[in-house]
Write a structure and sequence with these properties.
Blueprint (H helix, E strand, L loop, with lengths): L1 H5 L3 H4 L1 E5 L2 E4 L7 H14 L16 E6 L2 E5 L2 E5 L14 H14 L8 E8 L4 E4 L11 E7 L2 E5 L9 E5 L4 E4 L8 E3 L13 E8 L3
Antiparallel strand pairs: 1-2, 2-11, 3-6, 4-5, 6-13, 7-12, 8-11, 8-13, 9-10, 9-12
Bound molecules: N-(carboxycarbonyl)-S-(naphthalen-2-ylmethyl)-L-cysteine and fe (iii) ion (FE).
Length: 216
């Protein structure tokens, strides 16, 4: 059939270039779901999800933890990266090699062949949790992309411009989707709208987002 020729490569159908520096790869990690969930369970036994305080004193609705050499934290003093979990004063749990391998592979597909993630922020959204429009600019090396994995129930992601007031587009991120952001899109404002009631067969009423960052 002619359609077989046009859509020869199923992988290409799942790869959507959203901007010059941005690639969405739908379902990229689906087949690793069980292993990824097991790794998250191991990590959160050592470094549990917690709702951090913003510099303004607001408690975030998203539960956060980290793995890897450096982790993102926020408190009344501001946003920063730290090698220690502020709750346990211990090093963050190691980044699982499966996480690193999948993130590096996704970055390669998006055109970032030298990605070396050393930090991994894990966000847990329960029903109603949201992440207000923001830029990720606490990383020293803004040349490196950020890779994000979405798991569990879907979220509506907001994707803006380089100014807070620029118009935003909405995009639904579903279980297994991977987004890679870099280059000219690296400093775009973005956020997550309040999560709507839903249920995922393995994760229940939650969404987990994992972002891989290169700090060095
Ligand atoms: C666009 N997380 O952890 S991931 C964050 O779904 C964060 O939990 C969201 O924003 C979440 O900082 C979105 C996708 C993402 C990550 C980083 C970006 C999009 C980005 C950096 C620049 C532009
Ligand atoms: Fe962000």
């Amino acid at each position: 059939m002619i359609t077989d020729d046009l859509f020869e490569n199923d992988e290409e159908l799942n790869q959507i270039r959203l901007g010059e520096g941005t690639l969405l790869i739908r379902h990229f990690i689906n087949e690793y779901t069980a292993e990824i969930i097991t790794e998250i369970e191991t990590i959160t036994k050592q470094a549990p999800f917690r709702k951090m305080l913003t510099p303004n004193g607001h408690k975030m609705s998203v539960g956060m933890t980290n793995c890897g050499n450096v982790g993102w934290v926020t408190d009344l003093k501001g946003y920063h990266y730290s090698q220690q979990d502020p709750i346990t004063q211990r090093h963050w749990p190691n980044m699982p090699s499966l996480f690193r391998e999948l993130a590096v592979q996704a970055a390669g597909l998006a055109g970032y062949p030298n990605f070396q993630p050393d930090g991994c922020l894990i966000n847990r959204y329960l029903i109603g949790s949201k992440l207000s429009l923001h830029q990720d600019k606490d990383e020293k090396n803004l040349n490196a992309p950020i890779v994000s994995f979405s798991l569990g129930i879907p979220a509506t992601f907001q994707w803006g411009g380089l100014k807070r007031t620029d118009q935003t587009e909405k995009l639904v991120l579903s279980h297994g989707d991977v987004l890679v952001w870099g280059g000219v899109d690296r400093l775009r404002f973005h956020g997550v709208l309040p999560i709507k009631s839903n249920n995922h067969p393995l994760l229940g009423e939650q969404r987990i987002n994992i972002t891989f960052r290169q700090l060095s």
